[in-house]
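Hi Y.,

Following your request, here is the sequence exactly as I used it, all 459 residues.
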Amino acid sequence: MSDKRQQEKLALEGGLKAVTSIEGKGQPKIGVDEFMAVAERFGFSESVLGKIRKAVESGDVGEGAYLANYYAGLKQTKNEEYAALARKLFGVGYAIPMSSGTGALHSAFVAAGVGPGTEVICPAVGFFATAAAVVSSKGIPVFCDVNESMQIDPTKIEALITDRTVAIAPTHYQGGVCDMKSVMKVARKHKIKVIEDCAQSCGASYAGKLVGTYGDIGCFSISAYKIVGGGEGGLLITDKLRLYERANQLAECGGLWRPIRFDPPRYKGELYCGTNYRLSELEAAIDVVQMKKMPATVKRFRAAYTRVLKGLKTFKGITPGLVNDIEGEVGYTLRFFPESPRLAAKIAEALRAENIPAGTRGPSGRDDWHIYHYMYPVTLKQGPTPDNCPFECPLYLQAGGDVNYAKGQCPVADDLFDRAVSIRISQWYNAADCKHIANGINKVLAAYCEPDPDGKPWM
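Below is the corresponding structure, written out as tokens. Let me know if you'd prefer a different format.
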């Protein structure tokens, strides 16, 4: 066969290949410069950064890094490692790495059936993201009062349940834990879902069981703002396959999570349009390390918190915060309630002067999205479009819905939020530090209040 005929013949049929080599040689899309940009975020000196660059430039990174969740060409991606670690740590069947705790909440609410014409019971105290995710799911938040733990009051939930209620969203506030057994009892009686917001209490437990595993779905913020996480990230966990699949469809509507990605639905309601809350490989790599540290981190916080509490005396006019489970709280916030916001402000100022990190809202009156009546994007009932969905949704109005928000609806929250004094506890306090902190608190309280040997104990 002539060379010309051999060249014309298809390679599939034994002919010569049209392309035998590529002469152009490119550079990795994501290579040394990107690695150095990350290294800079760790705060190394210019001298150290120079040494790092010299070291990494001496190696061959090949085609460079691939920092997306799918198609990474790896045996196990960091997202898969993160999910597997979460399943093991929390003892659940399913875990979804998320780009944020808010994304996890939005996915969870949609998975649980929140939509037009429905309501979700949310605590009066906790960050605005919980209620906002309900609204983003086209549901209506209904606020429930708290008790002296600053967690949702289980005795107040039942009165708020209507035919429109599809879920309760207890928030484990500032390292504390809700009374989950009581919450679950009410929820199961009325056959409604429980979505646990664990953004502020990753690693906490109640009655020996980790938060996030009581409800139907547990949602976490794994971020730089929390005790676990390094940037912006989240996590959703559940033991229920259908809830996992529905949450995944909202979080990753491309279908890439499915066994056969682009097949027709396997069952009614499996596929619907969602959004994208995927976590990048770069963030997942950091969160794998952070999540492995979580048990030890929580143990250190809890030990310091308990040591300080044991050293505190009781005083008239000072009510220690209710602790639902002293062995389960993370313990990065010590909270108590002076008898007035004005006294709270004086005590907080005096504590700071003693080098004790304390804060209070006091009588300032400033707005704060951690309490229901200041959550303006919710309480103003203004949707992003002229139809004002979901607040004026016909499905909600026809179902008898008529929500209104005003200060005074949750009087315990109104009262406690203004006069709470919160003291930050460091996980790195040693025994001597804890003793000094406790002595300092006693010193300040003794200056403003009378001792009360028969007062409510701190623990």
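Residues 281-310 form the longest helix (30 residues).

Thanks again,
Q.
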